[in-house]
Amino acid sequence: MTELTSIDGVGPAIAEQLEAAGFETADDVLSSTVDELADVHMIGESSAESILEGDDDGTRGRPSKLEDHWDDIMDAAKVGMSKKGIARTVGIDESTLHDWENKDAKFSESLKRARAVGERRLITSGLYDEDVDTGMARFLLERSYLYVKTEKQEVDLTEERELSFSDEERQKLAGAFEGNPET
């Protein structure tokens, strides 16, 4: 491990790139400018600023848009939108929404609760609000919340048929019922 990895925000890979660019000590790095550091491979301008400010908040790369979209996502979920509809509303791909659910337990729980509010709204509005199209509420519940419509039907299976068998077929059937299928 080199001295450069003692700098907040500099790991082994960045230290290697800094050394390749001619930075030998932590003082060399900390006395440089943002532009000089940003010219080093693998270091962008925001990373250079973080290194010089000693700001190692543990985040690297492009920041997630989750925080920017959190409130809009929850609002869309609370009105009963499908996950695909939520994603469209905030301008992200549905797979991004699923990734955020899988990676962030707090977000996943919040989204479940917000969707439960939306589900409850659809159910209660479909039951109690005369101005609501119950067919549309039912459709949304089926599509967004996987409600399945089931119906029971009585079926009469008392059909009689006359079957005719040859003598040979009767013997085979009789043998099969007696445990001797060869007869």
UniProtKB/TrEMBL annotation:
Gene3D superfamilies: 5' to 3' exonuclease, C-terminal subdomain (1.10.150.20), Homeodomain-like (1.10.10.60). InterPro entries: DNA_repair_Rad51/TF_NusA_a-hlx (IPR010995), GP3_package (IPR032066), Hlx-hairpin-Hlx_DNA-bd_motif (IPR003583). One of its GO terms (biological process) is DNA repair. Residues 57-66, 158-172 have a biased composition (Basic and acidic residues). Signal peptide: none annotated. One of its GO terms (molecular function) is nucleotide binding. Residues 2-21, 35-54 form the Helix-hairpin-helix DNA-binding motif class domain. Residues 45-66, 158-183 are annotated as: Disordered. This is Helix-hairpin-helix DNA-binding motif class 1 domain-containing protein. It comes from Halostagnicola larsenii XH-48.
